[in-house]
Amino acid sequence: MNSFIAIVTSKIILKLSTKLFKGGSNFPGKVALALDRSILSTVAKGYKVILITGTNGKTTTTSMIYNILNKAGKNAITNNTGANMNTGIVASFISNFKFSDKNKDMYAVIEVDEAYLKFITEYIKPEIITVTNLFRDQLDRYGEVHTTYNKILEGIHKSPQSLLVLNGDESLLGKIDANNPVVYYGFNVPIKENIVLNVNADSKFCKFCKTPYSYEFITYNHLGKYFCANCGYERPELKYHIDEITALTTEGSEVVVNEESYFINQSGEYNIYNAICALSVTLELGIESTSIKASLQNQKSTFGRQESLNINGKEVKIILVKNPAGFNQAINTLLLNNKPINLALMLNDNYADGTDVSWIWDVDFEKLNSLEINDIIISGIRLYDMAVRLKIANLKEENFKICESDDELINNIISAEAETTYVLVTYTAMLHLRKLLHSKGYINKIW
Known about the structure:
single chain, alpha/beta, Protein-Tyrosine Phosphatase, Chain A
């Protein structure tokens, strides 16, 4: 009876939230959990569940897996708004729940916040748990990467039968302390030659003996083919591996994985990792490579993840950034340009962004000096922190457009000189920007 009341009440709230507020992906789940703490085990019953967690790339990887399953003719649901805590996940299942449906042969592709994995696996025993990577992120909430790793382990330990599909280039995930079956994916070739370990890289020391890692090559940050010269710990054997990168452009990447060529319709080095993660998961589910290829080459951007908008004839690309590793990868994507661009940066310090913004000093903004940037538009709650950081990085101060109001932000984006504007934006700033663009009629949906 509690489950019935929770489901019906939550469905009513979902409809009202969508109609009145154009969103509301967490509150209905919060209400359902208040009425029935174990509601998740009821609404997720019968699904083949795939959980995606990790610091960066969760939303894009979730979208890739979901789209591949659809391309292969499978029935699947997902929490595509990115509401990845237990309330949002419950709401997603309830929105798809039917009292007469047994969910047979249905997949649920669910993005999960790292700290909330243990709350989900308390009630769901997924087919697969995949972990993308572990970077420093929201230090006020997570602390260092070992804290995040331990939170994920808590969730894994509650579901010992789940297959783990892990990033083998992530040194914290080798020899993982779990009894689950494990397969690894990663790179057998560097993305660029002669990459050295940055002083601000994350997991630089052996997880067992604390000796600095040695590398045959680094892909980015601390990821790569690592080994410890002291204790012998080394990268595990990869089941799925990138053997060649044949193209890396602003339009996408072409790579060879296990002797098969794939085109990834999303630019950036980090999206190659997202794609091989999605590929590995779906191959483990028995999906044919033809469906995977067809889906990846037509993969559309999820909101805020290289989403491309047309605003008054100008191209505006929104890229979510939330930590140094992700921001540096976004900058590397910008460096693929050989034409003038505009750059907008929005920095917030709300709880969902991380209240400590000192992390921007670990971002390599100095690289941007090699680009031809016309206007540099700066906005957000902490816009002056960002302006100071960019000034110290020697970007041209005379190009700065400081926007203290929404109207200033929109007007500067519209009037910017170059045809393409990249907007690098933290999470709550992205949501604010989307609501603003929706109110002005530039986009049809907030979510």
